[in-house]
């Protein structure tokens, strides 16, 4: 990895400024020409160059997606959209955090600042902003059209509480709007950490089942992934997988682990009204790997072949391989890719070499 890489998302700028002026660093230049993988891999019913990409979040719009495709990320998730506009939380949205080692799943208190030191862990806190569908629909369609052979966009979306009589209807509406852009794969985000740690949707199994069924009714013919958080043991998640057996096509996991980022003075680093934030990067890789391993084991127990997208703390070829060995069909990197836009090309070159 470069020593002082410029991230393609600038954490010092607002979400809107990144949306308008990004991507930055290497992503604002043409990619160096490198040999692509000769052998493709099968993912669902698609041929993908390398099952590696960027999960929902850092790819804000078609400009970011085009840059990611050019730099060899073959599966790119367009940032989670909603059925109506929602503003981002104010700055700071992204801070570096410095846990002593790996983060626990028990909302640890961690020092947060703007020293983005490697190996990097960050907290992100946006509140899942979205533009109106009349803005993101044509832009998402543009991103879908930018895919080259063996590359695909995944459309991430979520419902908004209070939008309609019940949230599952708004999830279904969002799914329909995303489907209209011809995106080939859908992903419903059920694990946003910034909407309240104790009310992550993915922990309410009956609600998740209703949401998944509504989405499938609305868009029956497209693969559907659910973005899940970390579950601490097999028994905690097995009932959910059983309920969704045959309804969804796979799971993307993990989103983030929640923590309390504080300044050197012990003040909430994201502001008094945001005492917790989702943590991503190096400190959560153990949790992503554990979840992938768990899902792979449980899919054998269920005799079900749902697909697994492994996410969390990937910043090297060895991490990519660890996720594949744990059972991930696809691996994705957000924090690692943001600070190393050459990551996909590096992994391809290492695997080919
Ligand atoms: C800047 C940023 C924004 C994110 N926004 C979203 C989002 O809108 N929807 C979502 O499902 N996950 C979102 N995430 C979570 C990532 O998809 C991913 O699950 C998480 O960052 C862990 O991967 P990593 O360790 O490679 O960063 C975001 C992450 C980052 C860093």
TrEMBL record:
Which cofactors are named for this entry?
FMN
**A Gene Ontology MF term for this entry?**
dihydroorotate dehydrogenase activity
Q: Tell whether Flavoprotein is among the UniProt keywords.
A: yes
Pathway(s) per entry: Pyrimidine metabolism; UMP biosynthesis via de novo pathway
| Keyword terms of this UniProt record | Flavoprotein, FMN, Oxidoreductase, Pyrimidine biosynthesis
**Carries keyword Oxidoreductase?**
yes
Question: Which InterPro entries does the entry mention?
Answer: Aldolase_TIM (IPR013785), DHO_dehydrogenase (IPR050074), Dihydroorotate_DH_1_2 (IPR012135), Dihydroorotate_DH_cat (IPR005720)
One Pfam family cited in the UniProt record for this chain? DHO_dh
Q: Where is the Dihydroorotate dehydrogenase catalytic domain?
A: 120-351
Q: Which GO terms describe its cellular component?
A: cytoplasm
Xref: SUPFAM superfamilies? FMN-linked oxidoreductases
Gene Ontology biological process terms in this record: 'de novo' pyrimidine nucleobase biosynthetic process; 'de novo' UMP biosynthetic process
Q: Please report the name of this protein according to its UniProt entry.
A: Dihydroorotate oxidase
Which organism is this protein's natural source? Snodgrassella alvi
């Amino acid at each position: 990895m470069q020593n002082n890489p410029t991230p393609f998302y600038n954490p010092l700028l607002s979400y809107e400024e990144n949306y308008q002026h990004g991507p930055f660093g290497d992503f604002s230049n043409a990619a160096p020409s490198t040999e692509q993988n000769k052998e493709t891999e099968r993912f669902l019913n698609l041929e993908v160059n390398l099952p590696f990409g960027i999960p929902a979040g850092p790819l804000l719009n078609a400009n970011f997606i085009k840059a990611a495709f050019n730099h060899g990320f073959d599966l790119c998730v367009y940032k989670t959209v909603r059925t109506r506009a929602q503003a981002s939380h104010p700055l700071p949205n992204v801070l570096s955090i410095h846990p002593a080692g790996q983060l626990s799943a028990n909302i640890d208190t961690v020092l947060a600042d703007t020293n983005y030191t490697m190996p990097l862990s960050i907290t992100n806190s946006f509140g899942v902003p979205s533009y109106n569908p009349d803005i993101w629909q044509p832009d998402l369609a543009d991103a879908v059209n930018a895919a080259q052979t063996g590359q695909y966009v995944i459309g991430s979306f979520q419902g908004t509480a209070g939008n309609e009589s019940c949230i599952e209807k708004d999830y279904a509406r969002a799914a329909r709007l995303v489907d209209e852009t011809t995106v080939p794969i859908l992903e419903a985000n059920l694990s946003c950490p910034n909407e309240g740690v104790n009310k992550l949707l993915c922990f309410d199994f009956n609600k998740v089942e209703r949401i998944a069924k509504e989405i499938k009714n609305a868009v029956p013919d497209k693969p559907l992934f659910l973005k899940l958080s970390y579950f601490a043991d097999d028994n905690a998640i097995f009932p959910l997988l059983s309920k969704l057996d045959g309804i969804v096509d796979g799971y993307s996991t993990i989103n983030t682990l929640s923590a309390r980022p504080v300044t050197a003075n012990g003040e909430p680093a994201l502001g008094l009204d945001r005492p917790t934030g989702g943590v991503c990067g190096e400190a959560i890789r153990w949790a992503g790997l554990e979840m992938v391993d768990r899902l792979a084991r449980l899919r054998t127990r269920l005799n079900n072949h749902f697909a697994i997208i492994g996410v969390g703390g990937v910043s090297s070829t060895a991490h990519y391989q660890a996720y594949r060995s744990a059972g991930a069909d696809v691996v994705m990197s957000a924090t690692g890719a943001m600070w190393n836009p050459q990551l996909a090309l590096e992994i391809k070159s290492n695997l080919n070499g």
